[in-house]
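Q: Amino acid transporter transmembrane domain-containing protein, please. Structure only.
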Amino acid sequence: MQSTKFQRQSSFRRGGVIPTAICLSKATISVGVLSMSVHAAEVGALYQLACLMLGGMLTVLSIRMISVASIETKKWSFEDVCEELFHPVMSIFTGFMNACVCLGSAAGYLIVCGQVFVVIFQADNATRNLFVVLVGIFVCCPMALARHVGFMRHLAALSVGALILLVIVVAWYMGDRGIDESVTTENFLLGPGGATFITYMNSINNMIFAYNNQFNVPQLTGELTPEPSRNGMTKVALLSTSISFLLYASVSILGVLAFGVAENQKDSLILDLMPVRKEIHVLISLIAVMFSVLTCFQFHIYPVRQFLAYLVRKARGRSSDDEKTDVVYFGRSLTRWYDIFCALGSVCLVVLIAVVITSLRAMLDFIGAFGAAYISFMVPPMWIIALRRKDEKNFSWFSREILFSVSFLALGLFLFVFGTYSAILPILGL
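A: Structure for Amino acid transporter transmembrane domain-containing protein:
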């Protein structure tokens, strides 16, 4: 009996493949799922599903590259790997980009919480802002102090279930009210027409952000048990990406059928469900969404903490090997004093962003193009090339691995430049 109990507990231990995959999928599935049907309504289900499949495959490859670099350098953050392979300046730039992505994502979660609060209570903008600030102080600040990403595995599993509940509610809405009258077979599959190059690029930006979980990969790679391995992280990548694809595809299809195409879609599914907010199962699903996005908060704050802690460490002339020497007691765990400062400072910055920016869709498009393309599709191939160049005798630019890495880097550069351009135009009103 005790042996069986131990096996059941250890199967979901911190660092196991399944809980790590759930944590990584939870870092992926959150705000992006709420606006997925908006893009599908503009470009059509076929293009959206093709983008999702392509994004999923690229994400698996990207995660594998990051895990290879982390394992071979034995470094577990973007900043430390970049310093090992390049230069501290590269570490600071990459850490800054990674922090921008995570700050924007975390702000998106608070924006969603504000939307849920408005939908449920019909609150005005001032009350919404007060609610966001209170959530940031009393919920996000304590969660941001956690030392390990893997400790969130149980909450991550529950929050994935919360988003599945949202998908079920959207399916109920379609079954109860029927397919929206604006939907035809042609515009469902191909879009309503009139979509421009900018529209299609923004859809790709949304796909990039939707799968963006690479910011947690070095840390989760280091937490794998019994030891970090390429095969283990490949399994994690395949499992987490498959979960994400199934949810995104379901929302893309059901959201368009339930709420229509083009301008019939609102900024997010939360606003689409406003007419039926008094239904008890809809209310429960909205509260579940709030729980889900707040659970995601820790996954995005941790990389920001790592970056700020890296800057403090460099300013003090310390290396990554000295990380565990300066600690103070905080509750039951040992936490570096500047980790506490960095965590709380990150949350305050996120709250400020969430209060100032209320347009969720514009934020997702811009962050997905600007930062996620760099972190997900440019940094990993550069790491692989730098690793292989260390072996000067056997290095060749024409080997399959290097040619693939260069092609991957070229794709990332395209998404970074043109994606940012297309995403910023709507924000500027052009």
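A: Brief note, in case it's useful. The two ends are 67 Å apart (CA to CA).
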